[in-house]
Design goal:
Layout lengths: L1 E5 L1 H4 L9 H11 L6 E5 L5 H13 L4 E5 L2 H5 L4 H17 L3 E5 L9 H18 L3 E2 L22 H15 L7
Parallel strand pairs: 1-2, 1-3, 3-4, 4-5
Helix pairs in contact: 2-7, 3-5, 5-6
Length: 181
């Protein structure tokens, strides 16, 4: 089982059921002959502190792989970067202790949050990926975020065709962790 553990970007906010990136990822895994079940553990509005509270429930499902995508709501709320880093560090440590393979999915913030905050925020993901020796997808919405035809009107969440591209990005980064079963 693969747990897609994240916030609204994982949950599929604003799109119909079956059109989130984990749904498209499941289709790609099936087409590639991989026998994994993707479980969408996305929760709209979740923060890294909420992730700390939920990690036990995610692990209770016995995932072999976790795609960790949290932190965007922390940034949008202006939560101190050190708090976000600490929470993601705690989650990654719990996943390591459980023997779960992890793909860390990074995110960035809209440019109006100021260069100092954004620079500090953007460092979280590569630093934690190095510390915990996990692969990093640097930007979950790569090739999607700046394309209005792929994004909902809020400019934060992908449309279904954007989620399809996100799933391709995730699949590319996930492939080294996968095993044919």
């Amino acid at each position: 089982m693969i747990a897609a553990f994240g916030d609204s970007l994982t949950a599929g906010f604003g799109v119909d059921a079956g059109l989130s990136y984990p749904d498209f990822l499941q289709k790609q895994l099936d087409a590639g002959g991989y026998r994994y079940r993707v479980v969408n553990e996305g929760l709209s509005g979740d923060t890294s502190s909420g992730g700390v509270e939920r990690v036990g429930a995610v692990l209770a499902g016995k995932p072999r792989i976790v795609i960790l995508e949290l932190g965007a709501n922390d940034g949008l709320r202006g939560i101190p970067v050190m708090n976000t880093r600490r929470n993601l560090d705690l989650i990654l440590e719990e996943l390591r202790k459980a023997g779960v393979k992890v793909l860390l999915a990074g995110i960035t913030l809209p440019r109006n949050y100021g260069p100092d905050y954004i620079t500090q925020f953007d460092r979280i993901y590569p630093e934690l990926a190095r510390k915990h020796h996990v692969p990093l997808l640097p930007f979950l919405l790569e090739g999607v975020a700046l394309h209005p035809d792929l994004m909902q009107k809020d400019g934060l969440h992908p449309l279904p065709q954007g989620n399809r591209i996100v799933a391709e990005n995730v699949m590319e980064a996930l492939r080294p962790l996968l095993e044919k079963q």
